[in-house]
Amino acid sequence: MNQQIQKSQSELAMTRIQLQRNETNLRILKLANSEVSNSKQDHVWESVGKIFLKTSVQDYSSSLKNETTSINDAVKALKTKETYLQTTLENTVQAINKYVGKPSS
Question: What are the transmembrane regions (predicted)?
């Protein structure tokens, strides 16, 4: 059971790190989208690997919205995973406490 606790704790920590990264990416996408929509330009330069491509503002905004939707879906899945891992961890700790005879707090 100790191994189960350690495994759940490490997975929970990794899930929280992934959530933080995705939330940071969402803030960056939101900022980029607002900057593009507020600009008076018809085209933007989009970085693709080592080159830049001239892209229309509408296409670029559309790709930003698609990426935002994708990240939001990932955040939902990670929050579900986080809840599952927290529940697993709490249940494991309660089982150990019950087995050892310590009262749960």
Answer: none
